[in-house]
Amino acid sequence: MPILNKQEAQALLKKVLSYSKADECEVNLSGSDGGNIRYARSAVSTSGGISQQSLVVSAAFGKKLGTATINEFDDASLQKVVQRAEELAQLAPENPEFVPFLGSQNYADAKTFVQSTADINPKQRADAVAASLDITKKGNLTAAGFYENSAGYSAMMNSKGLFAYRTSTSVNFNVTVRTPDGKGSGYASKGYNDVNQLDVAAATRIAAQKAAGSSAAKAIEPGKYTVILEPAAAIVLLENLFYNFDARAADEGRSFISLPGGKTKLGQKLVDERVTFYSDPQNQDLPTSTWSGDGRPQE
Hints:
The strands form 2 sheets. This protein has a 6-stranded antiparallel beta sheet with strand order 3-2-1-4-5-6. A two-stranded antiparallel sheet has the order 7-8. Helix content is 28%, strand content 29%. The longest helix is centred in the N-terminal third of the chain and has 17 residues, at 75-91. It has 7 helices and 8 strands. Helix 4 packs parallel to helix 5 (200-214). The chain has a single domain, classed as PmbA/TldD superfamily (PmbA/TldD fold), CATH 3.30.2290. The chain has helices at 6-18, 75-91, 115-118, 122-138, 200-214, 231-242, 247-251, and strands at 24-40, 43-61, 64-70, 142-158, 163-178, 185-192, 258-259, 263-264. By secondary structure, it is α+β, with helices and mostly antiparallel strands.
């Protein structure tokens, strides 16, 4: 499936909106192409490609909202999905918390697309796995891993003049290495927008080192120990934190930042001064979208 460029996506979204008779209408469009290769017990087990596209129409009449999704973009299908969204909206009860769609916004250009990542082919994936297996076989270790890459686009437009578009790429690799007796195990995981930053061999060597080093692990007594976490381990802990910074959950008393009486810990100190959380969509190593799912700019 071809990745639609900005002009093609804009033309398609305008066509969809032209079919709408709702008070407000918003359309989200996305598509991606990608491939993967999986290996287990030091041998490739599967290899595949994924191509997908989706168009989501949200239609509103007053505070009544209906949503329909389709993955066929011919004129008849586009008219049908708009009609279905509007039918569902008419059947839906009024939503007292309905928020009108945003108007036109300004977005910075995203740095999330790298052509060399989009150009990854099956041979490159196979060569990467071969490099990983070469390391583990020389160390008499057993490996299992997964290499996946994708290139895609996202776009949205509504009847109030908002239009957003971006392209993105990603490549992810993870590997688990075990000693022959099963007593030692090591893991490594890497993910980037730019394939040139991914070193499969280096990641495999880290996993192999962990496997060899943990084969003679010994139990220790409970107590306080200084532990240095790798990024992959630290981010899993952080996910449980920042995915629970939801305002509604806090206001309704369902969050770790809730307080009795419907209050929250907003404004209170939660962590050590040495801990800082910030968002930077333009980060050179891990860039992300400059607009959110509801169309708000992200900075």
